[in-house]
Amino acid sequence: MRPIFLAVCLVLTATSPLSAAPTDETADIAKNLAENILGRGQVRSSRSTNGGRGLVMAWESPTYRSHHAAAHTRELLEAEVGLAWGAIWRVLHRVEALEFEITSGGRRLCSGTATRTRPLVIVYARDLGN
Predict the structure, then answer these.
(1) pTM for the full predicted model
(2) Residue 112 buriedness (CB in 10 A; 0-12 / 13-18 / 19+)
């Protein structure tokens, strides 16, 4: 009878939600905060780095329209980053930097870095200029 009991305990332990791989709580919270600004389902990926002090995120731009002038598009993309980053760092005090990529339909519009202490750095797609 003991071997059966031990086998059942091992199966229950192995399939328990507590034994599952830990989730990246910082990245999950950051994703939710960013989606409060960008819209539900816009963030494609979110992960933390440097022990939770950094974030790497990618999202679909909710503001990009192909008929907008390049200067207008750059302004809107910068606003997206500023608003999303502001929402994140006001809540997640440990996070010091965000590396991001903004896309539209699989096309990279821009990427860059936002930190608490340095100016925002954005590299735009070639057709959007700098």
Answers:
(1) 0.80
(2) middle
* pLDDT score, position 23: 55
Q: Order of strands across the sheet with 97-104? A: 43-49, 54-60, 97-104, 107-115, 121-124
Map residue 100 onto helix, strand or coil.
Answer: strand
The structural domains of the chain, with segments of one domain joined by +, span 23-128
Q: Which pair of tokens denotes residue 25? A: 């709580």
Could you tell me which residues come within 8 angstroms of residue 49 by beta carbon, excluding any fewer than 6 positions away? 55, 56, 99
- Model pLDDT for residues 64-95, shown as the tens digit of each residue: 999 999 999 999 999 999 999 999 999 999 99
Task: Give me the phi and psi of 75, to 5 degrees please.
Answer: -60, -45
Gap between the Cα atoms of 100 and 88, Å rounded: 13
23-128 — its CATH code? 3.30.70
